[in-house]
Amino acid sequence: MAPVTVLASAFLLVFSLLLSEARTLLERKKVRLATTDRSFHLLGGISTSLLVYSHPVKATPLSIGLPLRANLLSIVSEKCKNKGLFGVKKAKYADTSPVFIPPSDNPQMNEFMAVDTSGEFIRHLCIEEGRAICAGATSRNKRPTEGSPHSEDMLVVEGMLRGRPQTRFHALFDGYQGSDVAKWLAEHLATYLNDIRDVNADEISTQFARMDRDLRAADVSGGSSALLLFIEYQKNPGVVEAAGRQIIPQGALEFITVAEAEGGPLLSSVKVNFKRDPEAQRGIYLIHVVSLGHGRAFIKSGKRIYPMTYPHTAESKFERARVQSAGGTFSLVNGEMVLGDGIPVTRAFGSYEFKKEEGGGARQSDVISAVPDVNVFFAYPGDSIIAGTQGAFAHTRTRGTLRSQLESYKITRETVVDVAKAMVVHAKVRKVAMNISTFVGYLPDYKLKTRMMKEGTSDQKGDEYFSIDRTTELSAALRKGTFSFLLHCP
């Protein structure tokens, strides 16, 4: 056999061994990278069509067989180490399985809640890490029934999506006709959100339709409203069209702001150039707000209050028109316009007796629709977020009363949990009998260097009885790269 043929055969043999070894290493490290053409181009594995190497390799005396394989591998490994492909840098998100983390099962804490049958206690969770400073608080209703012996509210105080280290999500689910739907949604939310390719209205609506369809397939009875917030820090924002703090979608010909839908004044839109905005010198926070039902959320900036949702109830002229065009009718029960035998919302998960079965998915044409409102807002460092379920705002009958209460809260890094509890206390003092859940977030102008997570139980005045430190769990969850911390009354 000619020397050239022998050399070519040897090269092909070594090359195939090299590819096999590289594939094994990639599978072990679960590397999923797309690098520039000045290094290996790797995308979900390796093949001869994807292997590109443009750096010249210095010729080295090599022998045929295993030494040749070892020498070539050493060259490749060294180059890959220099590029951080494997062997040096670990994959940032090593564990790809999303997981919900329930409230603490500490016996001493839960003994307070176990004897609470009339909403005497408040359970709360506070989290500080990175650019997230937030707290949630919840209390069960004062009218437990056989069908609803415990709270029907469920909170995701904080969650993180795989591959999105700058984004956190927070959610409140307000169940009705039982807590099963709210519980299912809170526990499964991260699984669905981890499938979104980008945080936008289309992707989020697709996942909401999937959740509602799978909820029906799981034969979970009842219903639940939902309020979901995505909060992302942006260091170098550009130019947007905005009305107040609400960002107008590009190309929108007709657009109704949340403030207008809530019954407020018509706002004119203006171009906001954040590069010239002195308040944005340390960046901004982009907030995607996803709502179904009567959850409420606001931006608080000094004394200014910016609504980010409007209730999906019969009070909204837009919802009344949509429901009536879908063939639905309202009835008056205890002074409130409701659907069926007492459903207070016009958009929700579940309630399949008001939804068409054919085709699956979510439709605006359903009497109770699972198509969410998705709106985008911006906030400056130093601003805060206030949100709650129906019970948190049931005692504020007018927009003026609501705004006065929100303006009174002094929200800082140190007070987020106090304000979350104070909102619950204020509702209880005003004899609100339903479940009450709140969320408060503070948007810092710097990234925290420390972490903290603390869960506690307080009395109906907000005075803390007992608390435990859960910071170790928070650190472990951050290393995983995806999590959702739940809060609810047992």
From TrEMBL:
This is Protein phosphatase PP2C-hn. Keywords: Signal. Residues 1-22 form the signal peptide. It comes from Neospora caninum (strain Liverpool). It holds the Pfam family PP2C. It comes from the Eukaryota. Residues 133-443 form the PPM-type phosphatase domain. The keyword Signal applies. Gene3D superfamilies: PPM-type phosphatase domain. One of its GO terms (molecular function) is protein serine/threonine phosphatase activity.
